[in-house]
Amino acid sequence: MSLKKPSRRVSVSEAQMDWLSDLPAQGLSAAQTLQWLQLWTELGLLRHLDSALAVQLLRLDGQASPALLVAAALLAQMEGRGHTCLPLADLCAPPVALLAWPTVAVDGPQGLRALWAHLPATLAAWRAALQGHTSAACLRLSDAPDQGQPLVLGGTAQAPLLYLRRYAGYEQRVGQGLLQRASEPLPVSEAAARRWLDRFFVPSADAPADVDWQKVACAVALRARLTVITGGPGTGKTYTAARLLALLLALHEEGSTLRVALAAPTGKAAARLKQSIDHALNSLQQQVPEDSGLDLNTLIARMGAARTLHALLGARPDTRQFRHHAAKPLDVDVLIVDEASMVHLEMMDALLQALPPTARLVLLGDKDQLASVEAGAVLGDLCRDAAAGHYSADTAQFVQTVAGQTLPTPCLCAGEEPVLAQQTVMLRESRRFKGAIGQLALAVNRGDAGAARATLLTFAGARPCSQTPAEEVAHFEPSALLALQPSSPQAVCALALGTLGRPSYANYLRLMQEGPPDQAIAGHAAWVRSVLMAFDGFRVLCAVHQGDWGTQGLNAAVQKALADNGLLQVTGEWFAGRPVMVTRNDAQLGVFNGDVGVVLPNSEGQLKVWFLDGDALRSVSVMRLAQVETAFVMTVHKSQGSEFKHTALVLPPGGAEVLNRELAYTGITRAREQFTLVEAEAGLLEAAMARPSVRASGLSLWWALH
């Protein structure tokens, strides 16, 4: 009996109920499995792409089993959620937690439990059901010849993993490429390195008495062509990277030049990286004796601007291919990539393919931030055990000799010595987040809901309470935190208008209304720069796009509130003061997905979108920018790589299913001086903290096996 095609709001029909009730007796056929998957698609539980993959597999193999079809559809669904593979262990019972579907979709007559009654019940049975198709055209084992099969079964017998073909390839190449760069030792002049490191890292009066992990990171980086430096906000990742560049230049062959490139996933992050590196190198040049021969100013000039990864690799329109690849590698000796947590698996594969085998790769990032929007969490896989260290005796001896630092005993490896761990360093001392925002971020990061709420209650005012410890009062930031639980999104509009006395959008709009002091080019540029900097003083971040509490609803509400209060004059799509975010790469225009600018008139009165990269201004005519969206409000994902003087994080009602710990932590750490939490319902912060984000990946297993 065939299933009728239901609308998204129609309950299961009698015909469907009859078909479903017949299943236990007659068993489940491939055609009936596709009907079930199609029903889930119509109900919005699966994407059309997910069920289409199952349809394609049945075309390739007319004997495809229900188990194969269901596993393929869920694999496609998981790829859309950022996972690179599907652990078969998650299929041994109805994957309720994995899919996070509503109760009716789990326990209803067409739900997960009903379907799972006809599918394998054990890991061995699932593995056998899939391996039965390895001789057909739709699936192969990971160690078998690639004949274009769309699915790959990898992992181990104890932990089998199902992949889409291209992700199996990405993971193998990335795993092998990173491991190879970390495992090939490089010659090091230990005495010279020690002299330079002692010059670059002069202990200050307030320096921590234990290990200087920044100095350790520079020493470790000398040993191989891969270095991973992770740490939270204010731990000095770019400060460390600047000293590493100076060290590499000092130890470079005499008379040769060091070719350095700086990159990040977004334009804002790239600009901040360049600005931070330049500032650190300029300061360091003043510490270096004039007769040392170390010319850091020339290094700064030769590096040029930092670029987005897409720009660095040479993105091409309407293709996944880049101009630089293995046959046409980048012309670089050292590549530093900041905000590496945002680099997805496919991008990391492209980057490693384009990087010359002799080049050094330095990855910087916060392992606890949100992973990339697309599939993969490479930095998270690399830094899974970064806090524990797992350093070998050889690494500890090298660090002692070259950096004069003694690694703590708990960070030493008692057994197996992981290769990648020897090139990974976690910075542990934050020099910026020691006040209320830092305390809140740390509490959220470790999942301590009680401490997080107590921090909000203690510091969300103009003064600390009487129970606040003296050592915390010393770092107290007046009104650093504010917690709101409003009944409507109008509270966000109040923040945007500045009625709560905190930095707001009113600041940049008033500067815009004042206009430039004169029409001279220099005066106009200074005015544009001041408006853009004021705009970056405040930002509203949220978790979702749809609804009154998402980017779409809040952008419209904030824009209307600003216009109603005379701060904006909205005339059509393009108007002065409109902030926009680029949503598609356009290499010809020099704009990339995630770039944020503000519409302002040029000196001749023509509207352009102005972008600020560090101190450098660039503009694009509004007529040439088609792929943009208003950006008073942006998602937390899109905010990565940016910081704002005042950040407001909006958690939507009923948002427990879309919130997680990393999202809350990332939103909080976008704030430099003030942070406002807007919870549409009580307890949403705790709900987010209770859901740490875990992405399925086989990279760690691949490294363990190789």
What is shown here, in short?
The protein is α/β, with parallel strands linked by helices and 706 residues long.
Describe this structure as you would to a colleague.
- Mean pLDDT is 84; it is low at 1-21 and 462-477.
- The longest helix is centred in the first third of the chain and has 19 residues, at 165-183.
- This protein is 41% helix and 14% strand.
- It is of the alpha/beta class and 706 residues long.
- Helix 16 links the parallel strand 8 and strand 9.
- The chain is globular.
- It has a six-stranded parallel sheet with strand order 7-6-8-9-5-10. Strands 11-20-19-12-18 form a five-stranded parallel sheet, sandwiched between helices. A five-stranded antiparallel sheet has the order 16-15-14-13-17.
The strands making up the biggest β-sheet line up spatially as 7-6-8-9-5-10
Query: Which assembly state applies to the chains in this document?
Result: single chain
The profile of the biggest β sheet is: 6 strands, parallel
Evaluate the radius of gyration. Answer: 27 Å
Based on secondary structure, the structural category is: alpha/beta
**What would you call the shape?**
globular
pLDDT below 50 for ≥5 consecutive residues: which ranges?
1-21, 462-477
Strand content: 5-15%
Helix percent reads 40-55%
Cα-to-Cα separation, first versus last residue: 51 Å
Overall strand count: 20
